[in-house]
Amino acid sequence: MRLHLLAIALLSTTLLGTTLKAVELEITPDVVYGHKHGLALTFDIFKPKTEANGAAVLFMVSGGWYSSWTPPEQAQAMFKPLTDKGFTVFAIRHGSSPKFGIAEAVEDVRRSVRFIRLNSEKFQIDADRIGVYGLSAGGHLSLMLGTTSDKGDEKSKDPVLKVSDRVAAVCAWVAPTDLREMAWSNPDHAKMYDRFPALELDMKTAKLVSPLLAVSSDDAPSLLIAGDKDDLVPIKHSYDIKKAFDSEKVDSKLVVIEGAGHGFQKDDAKKATTEMVNWFEAKLARKN
After folding, report:
1. CB–CB of 206/176 below 8 Å?
2. Is the model's pTM score more than 0.70?
3. Residue-range domains of the chain with CATH
4. Which alpha helices (DSSP H) does the chain contain, by range?
């Protein structure tokens, strides 16, 4: 199984059983938000042509920390539950495994938030109403943004790095939260994780990229969605970070999909999608 198939499978199930209305979109493909090793880091924008609500939701294109490209005309159906509600969606691609590691992916998506905030007027979104979500590895990256944000480095020569990467809301589907349990350097790691080259981590790095270990009282409001029969990313990951959020009094919610594994079908997918959309509508609403 190629790593990116996980993300595709999860994406395809999120819309099953969901009734969607037609909303015309303005699609802007391949916006460059940075460069590394001579390569461009890009995202696609999906903006409602009418009744855009001014809030942005960033989708982390990541499965097994593999970040694939899909023609945006084909990908737009993934985002209709959000664009139908007026959200502008940014599909963020990061430096992909196996060429790039998890720590590099984290830095890439942090840069994407900074870039979008810096250019918020151009993109016609509110810099203070940026949410983020993802599935599996994408959920992990979303939680890293929610728990490890900073104000930016005012001394940086790069104008993008001067800007905050803080997000206002997170939704993490079936997300790993403690990579120490999955890292190859852990002699007790499950052998199924040997399929994911990104997990070739030493324990120091595994700690640094584990959102569970970064939870603090100023974290972004976070919605966790997980199946209680998930063998790839056991629901314990979500229970543990929910407990940490509660301890720090972080606004959070855990939605357990009973009987579901590492991907949701039909009514389960509809329930999870509805929970996500409602979360972003509540947390990214305009302030009076």
Report:
1. no
2. yes
3. 4-283 (3.40.50.1820)
4. 4-13, 72-75, 80-83, 102-118, 120-123, 137-147, 203-208, 236-247, 266-283
